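Possible regression after last week's pipeline update?

I re-ran a chain I had predicted before the update to compare outputs. Posting the input and the new output here so someone can diff against the archived version. Not blocking, just want to make sure nothing changed silently.
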Amino acid sequence: PSPTPPHWIFNKGQRSSAATTNYKLNVFIHIVRSSSGHGFGAEISSSIVSLLNSSFASAGIQFKLQGADFIDNDYYYNNMDNGRAEQLFTVNTHGNAIDIYVLGRSTVWEYAGLANDIPAKSLIIHGKFYNTSILAHEMGHCLGLYHTHHGTVKEAGDNKQCKEFVDGSNSARCGDYIADTPADPNKWNECSYVGADLDGHGQRYAPDPSNYMSYADLQCCTRFSDLQKERMKSS
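New output (post-update):
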């Protein structure tokens, strides 16, 4: 589900600006284990921060590990159905850091990752994906980015969304609200777009499989666009 975007997304003059070109954000990592302590060890925390820093380096955003803890609870470790993700987002939260909850590899869950909102101060990532591009994808949501197919493929929750044209003429107010990410109908076979649809102007789509915020396969997603980087800094 994608919420209606904050008002500042449509009004550049209302966005915040930074005194420097680089940002440093604190993260706190919560490792969800079984009640008996089975699961990942604390060493994955440094790996997560390292991957975040390499993924966001070109955006001038870096992350600092504020701390880590274990949440030893079978309720979250075994199964994340029935609203448990929303409950987990309330456990051991921090006002001065982005909370990252890492599930076990064996945890039953329909998602690879989930941000608490757009933008947000917390995310959950499945243990199978903590060292993949899913991490950058969910952190992108936390910093104000939508899916590249948002609006072009209708997503629940956002009452302002509309389909983006291939020519980009409505890209600042439709799609993912980012003008330099191509319109995306979300029809992928690994790294290849396989759709044959035409947009409202009769043009064929040519989405970008390398964008972190797309739904192309994980190995395809390696970068943010220049305007996505600007958006994350202004959120």
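Follow-up from reviewer: compared with the archived run. The mean pLDDT is 94. Marking as no regression found.
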